[in-house]
Write a structure and sequence with these properties.
The complex is a heterodimer of chains A (about 210) and B (about 150). Chain A has about 210 residues and is of the alpha/beta class. Chain A is built from 8 helices and 5 strands. Classes of the chains: A alpha/beta (about 210), B alpha/beta (about 150).
Chain lengths: ~210, ~150
């Protein structure tokens, strides 16, 4: 089960993508027909994946991704387009995690791309996790702030994971803010359906 | 609609009454679909539940079929109202893009052999109508004829 936002100005394509994604991942994707609506939705709701066309009315797909990243949303984006130029792809690559699928495509191709992006997300989440752990447990002044920045990115990559909350709890505890630390630990436990808890160096669970 | 558990990639050329119905039906069944049609107006007639791609362009141009990724197609169905167009599209599909299954609508009875000799499977509305009439008449005359499959 994953949360997906589908952005495309053509109703047929939105229908098709929603149908293909719901068949493959047993979910009901949210849809937006332009980047403005998509930005509003993605500020309120968290997604595991966003698909977008490049040619959109108003703000185009590349600008949409740039604005997402500027808002601190690092959700993987799958660009789905018939007319992407190498320049388009190059400018989109700056906003990783990104992948590209050209229209028309089959359900299997779409499924493979989405799985790839979700795997990448897990990989980058783990890299951030190790980095954050390093900063939390170092005693260099300023490292706790660096850890906090990384944990904020982790929140946006995997919004439903308990791990960033556990880490935030540790950071706040170290700063002596026990009250807020406890809130994060509670949030972590609420999200931690399998009650795995968190220990330094743990492997993260897959979705 | 019964869903199938294998997926073929099908390109339908022409979004007239027949092309539209065929494409919608096949997409409902679960095939990966693309319709290629010259006129944007014709595509607006597609029902909302059509689950496939659309490409606006002349399918007799090689680039248009390339945009539809014809090299990956398992089946090409030519349904325009014009036999020469259907013939040309079918030939480009099979000879240039190597599509092994090509089915074409053939309006004029005289053209059926030409298509068949080129390895194209034919759907001829006239022949279908004649056969159906014959069958229904024969069924009435001699019920035990044994040729109604």
């Amino acid at each position: 089960m994953i949360d997906v936002l589908v952005v495309d100005d053509e109703k047929h394509v939105r229908n098709l993508l929603s149908k293909m994604i719901s068949n493959a991942f047993e979910c009901t994707p949210r849809e937006a027909q332009n980047a403005e609506d998509a930005l509003k939705i993605s500020e309120k709701e968290k997604f595991d994946l966003i698909t977008t066309d490049i040619k959109l009315e108003g703000i185009d797909g590349i600008e949409f991704i740039r604005r997402l990243r500027l808002r601190g949303i690092f959700t993987p984006v799958l660009i789905i387009s018939a007319y992407a130029t190498p320049d388009d792809i190059a400018s989109a690559c700056r906003f990783a995690p990104i992948d590209y699928l050209s229209k028309p495509f089959t359900q299997d191709e779409l499924k493979k791309k989405i799985k790839g992006l979700l795997e990448y997300r897990k990989g980058s989440f783990e890299r951030y996790l190790r980095e954050a752990e390093g900063f939390i447990h170092s005693n260099v002044p300023g490292d706790l702030d660096k850890a906090e920045q990384i944990v904020r990115i982790m929140f946006s990559i995997m919004p439903s994971s308990p791990t960033p909350h556990y880490l935030m709890g540790e950071i706040l505890e170290k700063r002596g803010n026990e009250e807020l630390a406890e809130l994060h630990r509670k949030a972590a436990k609420a999200l931690d359906v399998n009650e795995r808890g968190y220990n330094r160096g743990d492997e993260i669970e897959t979705d | 609609m019964k869903q199938i558990n294998y997926r073929l990639y099908v390109i339908v050329v022409g979004c007239g009454r027949i092309g539209l119905e065929v494409a919608t039906h096949l997409s409902d069944t679960g095939f990966d679909m693309t319709i290629v049609e010259k006129s944007p107006d014709a595509l607006s007639a597609l029902p909302e539940n059509y689950g496939g791609f659309t490409i606006i362009g002349d399918a007799t141009e090689r680039d248009v079929l390339k945009r539809a990724k014809a090299e990956k197609a398992d089946l090409l169905i030519a349904t325009t109202g014009d036999d020469p167009t259907n013939y040309f599209v079918s030939l480009i599909g099979s000879k240039i893009f190597g599509i092994t299954n090509v089915i074409s609508l053939v309006r004029s009875k005289e053209n059926v052999t030409l298509f068949e000799n080129s390895g194209i499977r034919v759907i001829s509305p006239i022949n279908l109508a004649i056969e159906t009439f014959q069958r229904s008449i024969l069924e009435g005359v001699e019920p035990a004829a044994g040729d109604d499959k």
